[in-house]
Fold this protein.
Amino acid sequence: RQEFEASGGGKGGVQENPFLDSQVDRLEEVRKALKKITGISLDIDLCDVCKPPNKRDASVRCVDCKKNLCEIHEESHNDFLPDHKVLDISEASELILTSSSSSSPPQHPPCPHHPSKKLDFVCLKCEVPICSFCLAVGD
């Protein structure tokens, strides 16, 4: 294996490709929407507090804040919030996988636009979770 530096002008330093760039942007929007709704980061191994593009690897996850933290942010978090439960990142990953594969049906969060409805569907156009009312009226 050899490392090399790509010199293209597209995302990640590769040759620019508008279609792939749009797909990467779209995927990032879906990931942010899911994290906002569920509180679970799909980047379980990256610190949620670090600013891009300098995100460090997460070493722990705060169960109360639902945030992944690197060693630097873990220290300040523990100083300010000593009562919060913090798990090693591998334990947190197992906990998330175990809870998502349990025999009980998934609990869908309420719709932000229609609080009495649950987010049971995904919009095929924008790929964000929606409720039955959003689906019916086209919200």
Observations:
- Strands lie at 60-62, 67-69, 86-88, 121-122, 129-130.
- Residues 76 and 82 are 10 Å apart (CA to CA).
